[in-house]
Amino acid sequence: MNHFYEETIFALSSGRLPSGIAVMRISGPQTRFVIETICGNLLPRKAELRSFKNRNGGLIDKGLALFFPGPSSFTGEDCAEFHLHGGKAVVDSMITALYDFPGCRMAEAGEFSRRAYANGKFDLTAAEGLADLIAAETDSQRRLALQISSGAQAQLYASWRTDLIRARALIEAELDFADESDVPGSVSDQVWKQMGSLAEQINRHVRDGKRGFIVRDGYKVVIIGAPNAGKSSLLNTLAGTDVAIVSDEAGTTRDLIEIKLDLGGINVLVTDTAGIRETLGAVEKIGIERALDRAANADLVLALYDLSNPIEMLSDVASDNVLRIGTKLDLVHSEIAGYDLLISTSTNVGIKEMVEALSQKATEATGEISDPLPTRRRHMELLSAASIELRAAIDDESAPLEVRAEYLRRASHSLGRITGDVDVEDILDVVFSQFCIGK
Predict the structure, then answer these.
(1) What is the rounded distance in angstroms from the CA atom of residue 97 to the CA atom of residue 233?
(2) How high is the pLDDT of residue 245?
(3) Residue 251 has what pLDDT?
(4) 218: left (phi over 0), alpha (psi -120 to 50) or beta
(5) Which terminus in the chain has less CB density within 10 A, N or C?
């Protein structure tokens, strides 16, 4: 890919100030000149303690400096790092000094990674995995992001694309050299058998994509119930603090309130919703509609029932993954049946068992993360497009071989767009804008 960028970019890559250390990263054709001016010559890939001076010789700070000559660097260009003391004045002085060099400017969000991609240091899926690794909050997110950023996903798609290109080549060879003795007759039967196996692999991968979405975006749990069923009390108990208003007055919760839990290394998003009931209030009615909509798109619904006054409302909920939970157990002394769990937020009875049930449900939904999974909407759309084209090539037996070969070419093209091997200029801005400045 090897693009050349005339401007040299720099940015603070180490996060919010003040801090113990601040890392200023530089990349571009002026890097070597900047280093020599600010701190003198450096040996490649060796950290050296140096004094940092501006172009007028004024001392900025004293710290470590490193030089990474291109193409053996993160971006593929000459790169450098200045490790400064993490004070705002120190960093501002270094930024001012760097601006004094012609052709040097502050980097935009994701620009270092975009240059690395443009210079062939990694593919588009690896770049997305790197962004996910930086944003990872749980262990499962970290492990999946590491797998993708390492290139495992790209290798899988590249192998499928190779199979498609080879199949197309065999079909076109049969078309072009049908009369030649060194071309095996009717290779089509063998090709279509192999393509059938590939289609099943891709379809299975697409089906597994939901697990990737859950790991990356979180396992979505929605609490529903009639007014005063104990929804907000349960949310506060799970959060360990008062995040929702608890009141005996019906209709108190009118908007969606969400908390994050880390259960067994999985990000679990729990949402409290408005109490479901017949109402004439316009605002409360909107809240109930939002509750039912969120429940319909949830991975798990916790349907709460006040055991002292259970009101059935599941007929309104479009979800097939529901846990029926009886609440306010401390107020009931008779035999109780018909519920998956019984809890009391006042005495904490049953809360541990309920959290364990949530953790088990989330673990079952994500499964074992041993294979690279699609984690983004564009992955799923392009994989589905490839699957449709491949299926058309296999099933349309009455079509001329030229047409079926074109189906295979289009399937290969869709896979290539995932990794950025073909025609992806329209999505580069979207992908790299998700990075922080300095990465």
Answers:
(1) 55
(2) 54
(3) 47
(4) left
(5) N
Per-domain boundaries in the chain: 8-121, 130-215+376-432, 218-366
Its pTM stands at: 0.73
**What's the confidence (pLDDT) of residue 1?**
45
What residue type is assigned to position 361 of the chain? K
CATH architecture of 130-215+376-432: Up-down Bundle (1.20)
Integer-rounded Cα radius of gyration of the chain:
29
Amino acid found at 61: D
pLDDT of residue 424: 56
Out of 3.40.50.720, 3.40.50.1820, 3.40.50.300, 3.90.228.20, the CATH code matching 218-366 is 3.40.50.300
- Show the 3-state SS of the chain: CCCCCCCEEEEECCCCCCEEEEEEEEECCCHHHHHHHHHCCCCECCCEEEEEECCCCCEEEEEEEEEECCCCCCCCCCEEEEEEEECHHHHHHHHHHHHCCCCEEECCCCHHHHHHHHCCCCCHHHHHHHHHHHHCCCHHHHHHHHHHHCCHHHHHHHHHHHHHHHHHHHHHHHHHCCCCCCCCCCCHHHHHHHHHHHHHHHHHHHHHHHHHHHHHHCEEEEEEECCCCCHHHHHHHHHCCCCCCCCCCCCCCCCCEEEEEEECCEEEEEEECCCCCCCCCHHHHHHHHHHHHHHHCCCEEEEEEECCCCCCCHHHCCCCCEEEEEECHHHCCCCCCCCCEECECCCCECHHHHHHHHHHHHHHHHCCCCCCCCCCHHHHHHHHHHHHHHHHHHHCCCCCHHHHHHHHHHHHHHHHHHHCCCCCHHHHHHHHCCCCCCC
Q: How far apart are CA 5 and CA 9, in angstroms?
A: 10
List CB contacts of 297: < 8 A, sequence separation 6 or more: 220
Which residues of the chain are modeled with pLDDT < 50? Answer: 1-3, 181-183, 185, 247-252
Question: Which pair of structure tokens corresponds to residue 373?
Answer: 């999974």
Long-range Cβ pairs for the range 165-168 (8 Å, 24+):
165/412, 167/191, 167/194, 167/195, 167/408, 168/405, 168/408, 168/409, 168/412
pLDDT at 102: 93
